[in-house]
Request: fold
Amino acid sequence: MPLDLAETTLEQTDIVNDWLAAFEGALTSGDAVGIARLFADDCHWRDVVAFQWDIRTVSGCDAVVAALVATSPSRAPKGFHIPDFRARPRRVVRGGVACIEALFGFETRHGRAAGVLRLVDGGAQAKAWILATTLDDLSGHGIDEGQSLPADAFSRDFGGDNWLDKRNARNAFADREPTVVVVGAGQAGLGISARLTALGVDTLLIDAHERIGDNWRKRYHSLTLHNEAHVNHLPYLPFPKTFPVFIPKDKLANWFESYADIMDLSVWAGTRLVAGSYDDDDGRWSLTLDQGARETRTVRPRHLVFATGVSSIPIMPNVKGLDTFAGELMHSGQYTDGADWSGRRALVLGTGNSAHDVAQDLHASGADVTMVQRSSSYIVSLEQAQKVYAIYDEGPSVDDCDLITTASPYPFLERAYKLSTAEMKIADKALHDRLRTAGFQLDYGAPDDTGFQMKYLRRGGGYYFNVGCSDLIASGEIKLVRADTIETYTADGARLTDGSTIKADLIVAATGYKNQQETVRAYLGDDVADRVGQVWGFDAGGELANMWRPTPQPGLWFTAGSLAQCRIYSKYLALQIAAQEAGVV
Reply:
């Protein structure tokens, strides 16, 4: 059935059902010609663990058809339909393209699956522009929604161990090895630990801090999330509706601590990974864990998940004379508040989010602040920045929105972010003009004007959500100097190429963090780090390198990103690990 811009919801549903039926028929029979008729020439298929144990994108009709024909026999997909609990098919504009967007379900040999379909006009036959397929669960593993609890869930063992006794014994791992060790108890570590625990995979979560949430709790005093609460839920347990729209760091930290308890996660706080090695013959890691004054433990899991985040090992700049500075020098990750710097002078190196927030906090505390710009940055107002999460305001449930988000192959992301960045650029023009007048170097997501989201995905930073600091720079209340005008740093500040000096009592280096590959190098050695390669940033296939998918090192996995990313992709990482443990991979 062809598309018509005036179709009703019922007609859109019929179009989607016709397409799904034709797709299933052609897929089942291996009819490559029949499959090709259903796809646009410039189509994309993004598969997230449904047709293969990986996350991959294929683009172009011929390549999509070949990949579907090659992978479908092993998964035997069937029963394509529109579930009653999903949002109905609807007309939307995605990446500037008008299409029918539909959420669908189907079955595979290994469990239930779900997908997203975006249909465009193809004449007599509606054609798929974007197809996304995702594995939803693993047959026989985990408790499905609505399933009864085990018969012994309410048992009472009078005179024996109660629930807390059993939990404490389980968390001690005295009588067994954990199947998975997760390093880092931020949003990434909590999310994957909760998913694995729900799937029945024995998981130990470790964190170097003494309390869960300290990775947020110990950061600078004024820190608040820059995106809205309804986008940032953790798996299974959404924030209460009474939460602030923008969650303060300490409230988020306390929520993390409560979450670990409520979700019954096995956590060893105050525990550092010291070193590790992998036994290829045994298929296990040997991990040395330092628990401070308590003891040093060696554990031998089959899987190791680094959840230490995009921001892990701080980078201190190697610039002339900085080692001679006699004042206080710190990385932005060490900065807490500006109370001690009232009436004193501070240099902030960098112009990303942390640099701006630190500079504004110091200024508010009464410090004389100068920012040093090393390279151009993208500045976007906080209100405009929320537009990239607009899908979560469209009406579908968070689960539906998460599924829709998976239907974002790299070419689509580029297209969509160019359009949204162009709109934000117009909205923020007055601010940008003032910043340029003040000498601030702007970009819009070099080299292709794709904005802050692609900057984050490609390099983990290089932008700022303006909550006031840009206005202070534009007005001259926070001074600005370019790094290439600094001849050298000195004992008392910085000397410029024109011979003038900037005096400083404090220098804060908001200069970013090393790639997670370097985290691996620090704990597992050069051989493993070199084998794994790049972590984060896009690979040649348009997926984030080594994220939530198998890596070249057996038994080693990575998870990181925003709260939303960690919630969405923890599901698929957990399913891959559970499938390996079940012997179905």
